[in-house]
Design a protein that fits this description.
This protein is mostly helical. The radius of gyration is 38 Å and the shape is rod-shaped. It is 64% helix and 2% strand. Strand 1 (2-3) and strand 2 form a beta hairpin. The protein has a two-stranded antiparallel sheet with strand order 1-2. It starts with a strand and ends with a helix. The longest helix is centred in the C-terminal third of the chain and has 51 residues, at 99-149. Mean pLDDT is 79; it is low at 11-49. The chain has three domains: 1-32, no CATH class; 43-97; 99-180. The chain is built from six helices and two strands, in the order E-E-H-H-H-H-H-H. Residues 20-36 have a biased composition (Polar residues).
Length: 180
């Protein structure tokens, strides 16, 4: 259904609407203006207002539900309300909601969380560096031990790379083979 733009009076035409294509279907209720419903209703201003009031109430409630969803999603830890209380808020309570304070709490919580992650990452990095230092020291000891056992081994006693691991594995394999 659409309006006949070529007509002298505003009337509902029986053909497809101007913004409507055969594949697209009719417009959604949210895209219909108040003029659309007013043209179908009697010309009295009171009845035109009563027709649009439910639509306004519906839109207001949809916006309020979206607002509640956002508040629940971004709810900071230790906030003064829980998710159920936010869900039950009236339009007046939503309008008076302390949004600045809410986002301040959210930001503080987010900063604390990021800070905890950074602290944890720093600790993990220090642990990894400590483990690498221990591994390097053990490899140097093994290289010195292998060199002292057999002077023919071609290894630097200060070597701390994978070459030490490979040489140690070869020595162990040889020792196991000799015992059999």
């Amino acid at each position: 259904m659409g309006f006949d733009k070529n007509g002298k009076d505003i009337r509902i035409s029986k053909g497809p609407a101007v913004n409507e294509s055969p594949n697209q279907g009719p417009q959604s209720p949210t895209s219909i203006s108040s003029h659309d419903t007013a043209a179908e209703a009697p010309s009295s201003s009171t009845s035109a207002t009563s027709v649009t009031t439910p639509q306004i109430s519906q839109f207001t409630e949809e916006i309020a539900n979206g607002y509640r969803t956002c508040l629940r999603y971004f709810l900071p830890p230790q906030w003064i309300m829980d998710k159920d209380a936010i869900t039950a808020m009236s339009l007046q309570e939503l309008a008076a909601f302390p949004l600045d304070d809410f986002f301040d709490h959210y930001e503080k919580g987010l900063r604390k969380l990021v800070g905890n992650f950074q602290t944890d990452a720093t600790l993990r990095k220090q642990e990894a560096e400590g483990a690498n230092s221990k591994l390097s020291a053990v490899r140097k000891l093994i290289a010195k031990l292998l060199k002292s056992i057999n002077e023919e081994f071609d290894i630097d006693p200060e070597c701390d790379g994978e070459q030490v691991d490979e040489l140690l594995a070869a020595c162990v394999k040889q020792a196991m083979h000799d015992q059999s």
